[in-house]
Amino acid sequence: MKKILSIIIASLIISGTSSAAFGENSRLENIDDRFLEYEKIMERYFRGEPREAALTKINRQIDEFNTWVTTGRKELEVQREKLNQEFKSTDTVRKQVDELDEQLTRIPDPTDEKAVKAYYALMSKRNALLEKYNGLARVYKEKETTFNSAVRAFDSEAKSRQEKLEEQKQQTTAEVNSIDLWFKGKNDRAFFEDLNRTYAELVEEKKQTGTSEQDVFIEKAKSLRHELGEYARLEQEKAENGLITVRAVLGTSLESHFIVDTGASLVTVTPELVRILGIADQAGQEIETSLAGGITAKGYEIIIPKLTVSGQAAQNVQAIILPSGTVGADGLLGRSFLKQFIVHIDDESEPKLLLEKRAKR
């Protein structure tokens, strides 16, 4: 039985709400619903490896069904063998009766008293054996009827379970396909960008209003971002040639995750992180940067006041504003930061990226 799967659940696709969708009054009115939607998406697509969990679950159910069928068939085979033994015993008695019937066809001479007496003794023996045979045959027939009923019940239950399992396989296949389609449509990136925009809007509103009513949602945004950052790190670790994802702090407290890219000439940061840091108005002119594999990209220059990774900080790090290509990662940790340290990469250690300050010349 092939282990494949799917459960049709409506895709939760974030449309990528822009800051223009939030007015002075509407922003907080809608924020509860927005974070409820974020939670649904996290649960549906990111937490607990939902795709792998669905496949594991149906495969376990298939294994359990196959085990149940195998065990049930073995038990029926044992019962069948016992019945066969009882049939052989019963048939042995029947053959003995047949042999006596054959002997009883030879009628003795009525004048031979001894022969007549032996004949009647043989007949009595035959009748006793026949009674024994009839009793054994009756018991065997009852057991055979019970066994056949058990076989029919087992076959019926097996068919019912198989139909239910096939339905579950179809549901799981639909579920996995739905998840695959969601990621294929890059809805994961749209979701991550929307979350970061919401985070930026909340931080900006807090600065504008000077109130604390946004704090609970700011903390929720931080928590979801951290969760997605760990998701990105684990996904890279699972990949055969995965990249190193590290935790970082921008400024004094903005927690983030970056992908180490020694092929990138500059650190890259998303527009949302620049807004959260409150330095969007400090963006410089458009510049070009080189990325791994000889790829080049254009974006606006920005100076990050402070960037801390693996306990080592660098001040006024040159960076370029670019969208993130990886969900959970806020950018690339390029050479504009790495060149300030002696870099050690050890896949067996934690953290994997070790930084050592260069000696002053």
Structure description:
The protein is α+β, with helices and mostly antiparallel strands. It has two domains: 19-47 and 186-357, Cathepsin D, subunit A, domain 1 (Beta Barrel); 51-183. 57% of the residues lie in helices and 16% in strands. The chain contains seven helices and nine strands; from the N terminus they run H-H-H-H-H-E-E-E-H-E-E-E-E-H-E-E. It has helices at 26-46, 50-104, 113-184, 187-209, 215-238, 271-277, 335-338, and strands at 245-250, 254-260, 267-269, 286-290, 296-309, 312-321, 332-333, 341-345, 353-357. The strands form two sheets. Strands 1, 2, 3, 4, 5, 6 and 7 form a seven-stranded mixed sheet that branches. A two-stranded antiparallel sheet has the order 8-9. Helix 2 runs antiparallel to helix 3 and helix 4 (187-209) runs parallel beside helix 6. It is rod-shaped. The relative contact order is 0.10.
Structural domain tally: 2
Oligomeric category: single chain
The CATH homologous superfamily of the largest domain is termed: Acid Proteases
- Class of secondary structure makeup: alpha+beta
Number of helices: 7
What is the name of the CATH class of the largest domain? Answer: Mainly Beta
CATH architecture label of the largest domain:
Beta Barrel
SSE string: HHHHHEEEHEEEEHEE
**End-to-end CA span:** 69 Å
- The beta-strand count equals 9
Shape, per Cα inertia axes: rod-shaped
Instruction: Round the mean pLDDT to the nearest integer and report it.
Output: 88
CATH topology of the largest domain: Cathepsin D, subunit A, domain 1
Strand content: 15-25%
